Each structure stands twice: as C-alpha cells, then as structure tokens.
Amino acid sequence: MPAWPLPRRAGPGPDTGGYISSPAGHHQRVLEEGAVGVVSRSWDGGVNAGRDPAELRHALGVPIMPASLERALTHRSYAYENDNPPTNERLEFLGDSVLGLVVTDTLYRGYPNLPEGQLAKLRAAVVQMGALAGVARDLSLGAYVKLGRGEQVTGGRNKPSILADTLEAVIGAVYIDCGLDEARALVHRLFDPVITKSAQLGAGLDWKTSLQELTAVKVLGVPDYQVEESGPDHQKSFRATVRVGGRVLGSGQGRTKKAAEQQAAEAAWRAITAESEGDLAAENGDLRDGGRADQPGNQPGKPGDKPGGDKPGGDKGAPEH
C-alpha cells in the first residue's frame, strides 16, 4: 500500500534504511529534507495555512500521520503559490471511493426492502456535494484548509466544492494511514446522521420535493417560496420563507437560493409532520378515553348522575317536583 514520504528526522540515531513505521504498521519511505514531494511535519502557521491541523486530528479521533493530514488539507491554489507541494487531489480521488463503498454497504444492509433504483438515489443524496459540505462545516474543516490568496479573499474556506473535496481527501488519508476499518468507523461517525436524514425524504430525495408530496397528500395547497438576498457579490447570503395555505411554516438561510429554499422546505415538512403526529396522538388519546368529550353522550356529568345524563330516581328528562 503506498504511503506519503516524510522528511528524515534530524539528529543521530540508528539507520532505518530510509523507512519509518506508521501507527497502522505500514512503512513509509523517508527522503532527505528538500527532496521533491516531501511534506513537512510542521505547520507553518502562515496566513493562508489555516488553523493548526493538530486540532482537527484530535477532533477526528484517528491516528492519522501529521504529514498525511497536512497533504489532505493542501488545496491546489496554495500549492501554486508555495513551490508546488503535493496537493490533496489524489487523496480526494481515493477518499471518494472509500466513502462510496462504506455508504453503499451501509444502505444495502440497512434498507433491505429498498429496490436498486431507490438505493442509488439515496446514496447520491448522501454523497452529493452539499451533504459533504455540511459535514465539513460541522467539523469546521474550512478553517484548516491551506488556500492560495485568491481563494482566501473570495470566501474559499466556505465554498461547498472545496469543503467537499477536502473532506474526501481526509477520508482518503485516514484509509492510507490507518486502514479500511478506521476509515469505515470515521465515515459512520460523520455520515450516519446524513443517511438517517436522507432516508426520511420522498422519492425525489430533496426537501422541496418531499414538501410538495406531503402537501399534496394532505390537500394543503402548493408551497410558495419567497427569497431575499443580501451581501456583496462574492459572498451573497439568501433567506427563504415558505408559505403553505397562507401560513409561513418554514424559513432557511444559505449561500445559494437553492440551499435556502431547501432549508425552508425541511422546516415546513417537519412542522406539518409534527402537527399530523400531534393530531393523531390526540385522536388516539380520545379513543382510549371512550370517545371525544364534545360528542353527545360524552359530556362529563355532575356527581350522582347516571351515565348518559339520566337523573337519579326518575326517567331521563322527567320534570322535577
């Protein structure tokens, strides 16, 4: 299995024959400092280098080598401006396959009744760029990416494409250093909530489609979206609200109009679902109590009354003397 080159350790010591061992037991070729392709063990702390990757390594909870993580965080824009160190593109290629394998295996085992076509749609929803970017934001991954100056000033640390690619590169690096079991465990920690959430959606596997299906089934009317935008051109923000039957049932914000509408649709879908579940629970509670209190024959009587409203000591409705 290939491994990333590391610089030779300074100072005297036994000759290792040019190799050192990684935590996973793999051997990594040690090159002389300054050799082409060497990734430095140290974090340079430059303005475009992002936060110290050691913090991210701790958050990931995996024994990934510092040099491998540094490479996974190196965007090509940084490499172009800094003597072309190795970028994360090859790791991204590998991580994409590892992620796809683990997600596919999880869906196959976890949803045995779904047909192939629906499994494929569900997988696509889990590994699409927006979902990956969301997971990356939860890790604050953008703060650790090494970017060129141009990407830095145009909001590259929050671009969905850069976040998604970097997350795949990190997964690829974990696979290289730690093996498939560790990579699988990481994917489960990061993506099991995404799988659960995506499985709630309708056939279209997006919240707008699911909301439209739900409102059609319940005859609530067609969802109506209103979107407002703010901010400069290079960093716009969008806020969406959705009305159903004249009521505002959801709102959302995002860096694209589509993202804001999807978030609003999700909020509305959950609101309608919660209302329906509440109505069902109330109805079931009434049935357990013997019927609704507002129906004839179910009004609470005064102490001493017979069931059904009969008065003691006489016929129902008999005049009192």
Write the SSE topology.
Blueprint: E1 6-7, E2 19-21, E3 27-31, H1 53-60, H2 66-72, H3 76-81, H4 89-110, H5 116-127, H6 129-138, H7 149-153, H8 160-178, H9 180-199, H10 207-217, E4 224-230, E5 237-244, E6 247-254, H11 257-288
Parallel strand pairs: 1-3
Antiparallel strand pairs: 2-3, 4-5, 5-6
Helix pairs in contact: 2-8, 4-5, 4-8, 4-9, 5-9, 6-8, 8-9, 10-11
Report on the architecture of this protein.
- The protein is mostly helical and 321 residues long.
- It has two domains: 194 residues, Ribonuclease iii, N-terminal Endonuclease Domain, Chain A, CATH 1.10.1520; 80 residues, 2-Layer Sandwich (Double Stranded RNA Binding Domain), CATH 3.30.160.20.
- It has eleven helices and six strands.
- The strands form two sheets. The chain has a three-stranded mixed beta sheet with strand order 1-3-2, with no helix packed on it. A three-stranded antiparallel beta sheet has the order 4-5-6, with helices on one face.
- The N and C termini lie far apart (102 Å).
- The relative contact order is 0.09.
CATH structural architecture of the largest domain = Orthogonal Bundle
* Number of helices, counting only DSSP H or I runs of 4 residues or more: 11
Structural class: mainly alpha
Radius of gyration: 30 Å
Helix content: 40-55%
Bulk shape: globular
Number of domains: 2
* pLDDT < 50 stretches: 1-45, 296-321
Distance between the termini: 102 Å
CATH topology of the largest domain: Ribonuclease iii, N-terminal Endonuclease Domain, Chain A
CATH class of the largest domain: Mainly Alpha
Strand order of the largest sheet: 1-3-2
Number of strands: 6
Mean pLDDT: 77
Share of residues in strands: 5-15%
